[in-house]
Amino acid sequence: MTNNNTIGEKHTDKILNMLAKFGSGTTTQIADLVYSDKKEKQRLANRKLNKLESENLTISKKLKDFKTHSHQLKKHGGIKIGKKPTDTIFNSPDFSYAHRLKVNEIAFAFYKHIEKYPNVKLITEYEIQTLFQDDFLNRFSKVPDTLVGNEQSCIWVEVEMSRKGTKAKREFCLSMLDLTFNLKSIPGISNDQQIATTLVKPRIVSAAKNRSLRISVINTIIQTFRDVIQEYDIYNREATELQNIEIWVSSGKGYLKVNLFEILKNGYLFKAKLDKIGK
């Protein structure tokens, strides 16, 4: 019994700390992160989350459009793990449920992968908003959706869910190019200091719910990159940097991934079936 209690407490601490880091998490995301039994993890997560909510440590909300529940830390949950509770995101004016869910889905995948690498750090969208937003806005006039890396290099994730206007697309592409051209001072990425100078590798993820919209969003961004790069004549001069910018498109079976240099060199666009890219 003592052993079961100890395991249960470890699961409780892991879930509460996860919610403090990510701001929220779906039942499936929590199940994947905390439980290893593939057949039982969903049931175990449901039971544990119901218990945490009954103890007033967490709160949940049914997300009707996504047929799932989103869970969030409450004040008592934050006190239990010695951290301040998260601000509510359920009525946030800044982020749609779809965007937050997709950003967290990508961040969770990175988080599971880097757990065995203690020198690699992940900063979630929620942490950036609450801890580093002013720093990022002052340095870059924008904030990433997720950061993963260390003092040598880091991945800057941008999740695109809808079309941008012409001016916004241009500003977005210029900002992504600027991130790659010189080492940048990134807040929070170092384990022993708040700001580290590091190589930034942008990851632009097209993840709209509708497949045709995903293709449209990313292909218009690619075309804008072409226009900007031609205008500033930086294609040949910055070939190495362009390889550090990756385009990811959700295909239903994972992500199609290709670097910007390859896209521009070969004249690629993403195709309607989302099973390949080509001219």
Give the structure's gist in a few sentences:
With 279 residues, the protein is an alpha+beta fold. It has helices at 2-22, 27-34, 41-54, 75-80, 97-114, 125-140, 166-181, 211-232, 239-243, 260-266, and strands at 25-26, 58-63, 68-73, 121-123, 146-149, 153-160, 184-187, 195-206, 246-250, 255-259, 269-270, 277-278. It contains ten helices and twelve strands.
What can you tell me about this protein's structure?
The chain is globular. The chain is α+β, with helices and mostly antiparallel strands and 279 residues long. The strands form three sheets. Strands 4, 5, 6, 7, 8, 9 and 10 form a seven-stranded mixed sheet that branches. The chain contains ten helices and twelve strands. The chain folds into two domains: 1-89, Winged helix-like DNA-binding domain superfamily/Winged helix DNA-binding domain (Arc Repressor Mutant, subunit A); 92-279, no CATH class. The protein has helices at residues 2-22, 27-34, 41-54, 75-80, 97-114, 125-140, 166-181, 211-232, 239-243, 260-266; strands spanning 25-26, 58-63, 68-73, 121-123, 146-149, 153-160, 184-187, 195-206, 246-250, 255-259, 269-270, 277-278. Helix 2 (27-34) crosses helix 3 and helix 7 (166-181) crosses helix 8. The longest helix has 22 residues, at 211-232.
